[in-house]
Design a protein that fits this description.
It is built from eleven helices and nine strands. With 334 residues, it is α+β, with helices and mostly antiparallel strands.
């Protein structure tokens, strides 16, 4: 965006789903006031060439209690802001953005510990209920392909990903940072079958985004908000491949998935119904392509790099990173 002053900026295009993040501070004392108000005006040109203005006014309650601040903090909004701050730093060539991410996380957890949980044991990691996932999300952001310096992603792909994240909608933040992973086979009893509400179908159970949860004879579906990946493990029996994909040859699965819907088995139609359910949930967002991931292929390496609880590209796994954050919070207290 072209920044005009502290309260005004220009952008060439803004979709209905794009999210702009603001960090606002107040210079006047607001103690004793019940509410504060934030007003935003968007002057834009619609498709018909008309100049329009949309004004949004937000009323926020004032509190002097940090406990209330933490209680009503929204994790997706915080993560969206941290992600975009990291993107801005990366695009400007600031290589310390990963350290800033961790510092922001530690500062928040330390503030909660000192002001809201000071009576607890010093050796215990205390997380506010609203921010329990913050260390997990911060650790996951550090592992994202757009922030890695290796050769597994081309420079143009990295820059494209960074720019796309600048306008990332709130609803797309969580799946991008921590992809949803479903057990696609064996299908649970109701997975892929109609719920009776519109075109909706029941979804299969999710698992943690960790390789420890992946069995070698199952099929998984990963959704990161940008794309969908069906991961066929190396020991899936041929009869399962035949039943789900219409072929008992692992190498022929991608081609088999391109067949007309009427030629698919009942289980295959249930699998496609699950895929379509995810796409319907994000009907206003960009179309999510479906990618078949087979063992030993380049797509598998890319898929495994999105398993964000594992050690990826030199970054710590989730448990080790959580311990690292805990030590930093303790050191800050000392």
């Amino acid at each position: 965006p072209e920044v005009i002053d502290q309260s005004t900026f220009h952008v060439s295009r803004l979709s209905a789903d794009a999210t702009a993040d603001f960090v606002i501070s107040h210079s006047e004392r607001i103690e004793g006031q019940k509410n504060v108000y934030i007003q935003v005006a968007c002057l834009h040109t619609d498709r018909r060439g008309r100049r329009l203005i949309r004004i949004s006014t937000l009323q926020l309650p004032v509190t002097s209690s940090l406990s209330n601040v933490f209680r009503y903090t929204e994790i997706d909004s915080v993560t969206n802001l941290l992600l975009k701050q990291a993107v801005s730093s990366a695009l400007s060539g600031n290589g310390s953005f990963k350290d800033k991410l961790v510092k922001s996380c530690v500062d928040m957890l330390h503030a909660y510990r000192v002001n809201c949980a000071s009576m607890t044991s010093a050796g215990q990691l205390i997380l506010p209920e609203s921010l329990k996932l913050l260390p997990l999300f911060v650790g996951s952001i550090r592992k994202m392909a757009a922030f890695r310096s290796g050769s597994d992603i081309r420079v143009d792909e990295r820059v494209s990903s960074l720019i796309r994240m600048l306008g990332l909608p709130i609803a797309q933040t969580a799946p991008l940072v921590y992809p949803r992973t479903f057990t696609l086979w064996p299908l649970s009893e109701r997975a892929g079958l109609p719920t009776g509400v519109g075109e909706n179908v029941h979804m299969p159970p999710t698992i943690a985004c960790s390789s420890d949860k992946f069995a070698s004879d199952r099929i998984y579906l990963m959704d990161n908000g940008m794309g969908l990946w069906i991961y066929v493990r190396e020991e899936v029996p041929p009869n399962v491949l035949l039943n789900v994909f219409g072929t008992d040859m692992l190498a022929e699965v991608p081609a088999a998935m391109a067949r007309p819907a009427e030629d698919l088995s009942l289980d295959a139609r249930r699998v496609f119904a699950i895929v379509q359910q995810i796409r319907r949930e994000r009907i206003r967002l960009p179309w999510q392509p479906l990618i078949i991931v087979l063992p030993g292929t380049p797509d598998e390496a890319r898929f495994l790099s999105m398993i964000c609880e594992d050690r990826v590209a030199g970054e710590q796994n989730y448990v080790d990173f959580l311990c690292h954050v805990h030590r930093m919070v303790q050191n800050k207290q000392d």
